Amino acid sequence: MNKTKPTFDVKKNPNPVTGEQRELLLANPGWGRVFTDHMVTMRYSEDRGWQDWRIEPRKALDLDPATSVLHYALEIFEGMKAYRLPDGGATLFRPHANARRFRNSAERLAMADLPEDLFVESVRALVCIDREWIPSAQGAALYLRPFMIGTEVALGTKPSCDYIFCVIASPVASYFKGDGPAVTLWVSENFTRAAPGGTGAAKCGGNYAASLAAQAEGLREGCEQVVFLDAVERRWVEELGGMNVFFVFEDGSLQTPPLGGTILPGITRESLITLGRHMGLTVREERYSIDQWQEDARSGRLTEAFACGTAAVVTPIGKVKGRTHGFTVGDGKAGPVTQRLKAALTDIQFGRADDKHGWLDRLF
């Protein structure tokens, strides 16, 4: 890992959003539609490595039609947030975990290796220059999207020699409307998200693109999200279109599908496992079939289920629908364990509780 703190050129936006306009935007930012004034960019070439590190006004990227990302999907990204603290300061949540996962994703797609300190310093720098964009409303945060794309101009099927790394930021409210009602899932039987040996554990755009047809099918069936089964037996629950999943049983224990290359190693997932065990709960990482899920929900053995991720945080699952499945989880609402875990996580993230695990990276 490169231990040298990067030096960078700063060019402030000459026409930033006014304070009055920003306040209006922050009052109801929605999700991923409003963006801050600046962006971070850094370029890579095989002969020079990473260089040209900048903070500059947010602008469009200028890409040649033959740029490799447009033809071979050489793209990876991360999702993370900056949180406003009670004293007016701000913090990141486990940024080094995002940096490690970013490197793992790059390795899987044969992309350039970005040292973890460069990743973290880039995120820190953008948040600090756009600090006024961090919302103060309940549950709102500044969503950060670091990403890297292959930029070599060539049509040969090979790893790119050139890359751009960027960080952009977007103030966000709740991912799902209402911030509380349980979601309904659609069981995908025609599509799978990932297969053994594939890119399921990498956070790359191709995985999300592959999920969209199933997601659209679920929306047509009146569901907010899709749940994917394994690609081999079409039996085992893996994850949602963009979130990991947990199950809560009548004895208070938790279970989540194990990582094995086809499931994204979610940072929220890992944090909830730690928090659950810290609370004295039994947490298992074991396979769980869709048929067993239905049987346990109907018998009452399963009392709660929830999805989790950086964007949606912790989202209760109320109903599950499919061509051959249909059941309600518990009373169809957020259960006590789900609510307790969400409160424990968000209280740490927003500085309302002690950070006993050393997860916060205070910025100012």
CATH-derived architecture of the largest domain: Alpha-Beta Barrel
- For the record, give the distance between the C-alpha atoms at the N and C termini, rounded to a whole number: 25 Å
CATH class of the largest domain: Alpha Beta
The CATH H-level superfamily of the largest domain is D-amino Acid Aminotransferase, subunit A, domain 2
CA gyration radius, whole angstroms: 21 Å
Bin the helical content: 25-40%
DSSP strand content: 25-35%
Sequence-ordered SSE layout with sheet pairings:
Elements: E1 9-10, H1 19-27, E2 38-45, E3 49-57, H2 68-72, E4 75-77, E5 80-84, E6 90-93, H3 95-108, H4 116-129, E7 141-150, E8 162-172, E9 183-187, H5 205-220, E10 225-229, E11 237-240, E12 244-249, E13 254-256, H6 267-278, E14 283-285, H7 290-299, E15 302-309, E16 313-321, E17 326-328, H8 336-349, E18 360-362
Parallel strand pairs: 1-3, 9-10, 9-16, 13-14
Antiparallel strand pairs: 2-3, 2-8, 4-7, 5-6, 5-7, 6-18, 7-8, 10-11, 12-13, 12-15, 15-16, 16-17
Catalytic activity: L-valine + 2-oxoglutarate = 3-methyl-2-oxobutanoate + L-glutamate; L-leucine + 2-oxoglutarate = 4-methyl-2-oxopentanoate + L-glutamate; L-isoleucine + 2-oxoglutarate = (S)-3-methyl-2-oxopentanoate + L-glutamate
Keywords: Amino-acid biosynthesis, Aminotransferase, Branched-chain amino acid biosynthesis, Pyridoxal phosphate, Transferase
Family: Belongs to the class-IV pyridoxal-phosphate-dependent aminotransferase family.
